[in-house]
């Protein structure tokens, strides 16, 4: 394609509201334009890359017998009423009303649609398993869209759904998808790790997230070098090894602690270590309040709390709610004398006694508080975040942390939707059974961004050849120079026979052309400049910066070699 006909509005300066590298480069390379917060247009270069990523996704889906369909973004609320999810999603679910006053959701995901589609068609176990997928825009009204395509409100997802008569069949498809995802991320040259994840509200039991490694990633992965163990930190199990250090139970004592609000302040005031302090938190679970106790040097893991209570509705109680229940302010809360609400504690709280805790009175705390004598813990459990260096649940060694961008997730859904929506099949005994489901998502537009996060330098993007918008970038330095223009035109025509060629034929200064070429990041570059008269051109490899003076007669061979050596 000639750049004089193209639409690549590159920018010179970095847009200041773009915090992530990929967001900056997507804007600078003229690949996206923001329409609204979290809503973007994909411009020609981005669209070409998306097409290539989607082509790889399609190939890998077809390879495991997953068949492409296309479902509507407009989802009638009736289906969400059937699944019971209409009331359970708040502002994130974009809703609208049609001209007849009927309510719709703009699809954030398609479990309801696909289940209603399949239940009307597949009646017998003989017709199962079936796996269907689509690639389509999704809508989620994120509270804080950020980092460009990494967290948008309208984004492109490949979502697949599978229907089974048996758990074994679901397991086979789950494994197929797991391998297909690994193939896809390898083929787009993305460094990734599959991690054990939490299935959250979607239900089901078993799920893995695919994390692209990148500092900007909002997820933290706990992994070990010794094995392929990796878990989203939300889910990473803490192996509780009792390390009981109890002393003689001392008498409960109330101490005046003016201005002490945090665990650290309490530790400093009492001349104790942070891990000798126990924090008390009031959590709202559904519509009731509970207290959680956790050691001063640990953090409460809200996802583990949600999973324990089996609900998404878990949040820290507000100051007003705390005062209403405890008649005390956060910063001086404690379990002593609390019997109106249940008390839960992280396992590690059992290791120490004679605890320093809030006295439920501003500026006062207790020392020597002891479970059993002074308060009752309803249940101890794994309620905290794992810390770097602690042992991995599979015994493969101490965990390390890394940041990741969630670019995919595979779920075993079970019968949550088929039960609720009466998607049944007749089994071999002719008995109606709910179909067993799996669902599998890839963030296609997010994957594009993750590739940029992992493949760029200070001058711009460095596309892996599998998804590069073009293979070869031909640049004529000065098209006004007849010899240069003719040679460049000729090379554009010749190389277009075997490669996808972007041809910078613009009347622009050389510097502008080279800057733009670095930004756009086509893997190989042929520069037709002053030495055109001698039949010499310059070849540049974008990834390494290597440059070669090449006689036109050797150019085809040189490009072939360099292209095959590209990652
Ligand atoms: O989407 C999934 C699970 C899988 C992911 C892979 C493809 C199929 N679905 C989970 N999820 C995430 N955010 C959501 C946001 C809204 Cl507003 C909603 F109404 C529903 C969901 C929701 O269900
Ligand atoms: Mg997540
Ligand atoms: Mg997820």
TrEMBL record:
Domain notes: Consists of three domains: the N-terminal catalytic domain, the editing domain and the C-terminal anticodon-binding domain.
Protein family according to the UniProt entry: Belongs to the class-II aminoacyl-tRNA synthetase family. ProS type 1 subfamily.
Name the UniProt record assigns to this protein: Proline--tRNA ligase
NCBIfam families: PRK09194.1, proS_fam_II
GO annotation terms (biological process): prolyl-tRNA aminoacylation
Reported function: Catalyzes the attachment of proline to tRNA(Pro) in a two-step reaction: proline is first activated by ATP to form Pro-AMP and then transferred to the acceptor end of tRNA(Pro). As ProRS can inadvertently accommodate and process non-cognate amino acids such as alanine and cysteine, to avoid such errors it has two additional distinct editing activities against alanine. One activity is designated as 'pretransfer' editing and involves the tRNA(Pro)-independent hydrolysis of activated Ala-AMP.
Known catalytic reactions: tRNA(Pro) + L-proline + ATP = L-prolyl-tRNA(Pro) + AMP + diphosphate
HAMAP family assigned to the protein according to its UniProt record, in alphabetical order: Pro_tRNA_synth_type1
GO MF terms, alphabetically ordered: aminoacyl-tRNA deacylase activity; ATP binding; catalytic activity, acting on a protein; proline-tRNA ligase activity; transferase activity
Domain Aminoacyl-transfer RNA synthetases class-II family profile, first and last residues per copy: 33-464
Quaternary assembly: Homodimer.
Domain of life: Bacteria
Pfam families from the UniProt entry: HGTP_anticodon, tRNA-synt_2b, tRNA_edit
The enzyme's E.C. designation: 6.1.1.15
CC annotations in GO: cytosol
Enzyme class, spelled out: ligase
Compartment list: Cytoplasm
Listed PANTHER family: MITOCHONDRIAL RIBOSOME PROTEIN L39/PROLYL-TRNA LIGASE FAMILY MEMBER, PROLINE--TRNA LIGASE
Keyword terms, alphabetized: Aminoacyl-tRNA synthetase, ATP-binding, Cytoplasm, Ligase, Nucleotide-binding, Protein biosynthesis
Main localization, broad class: cytoplasm
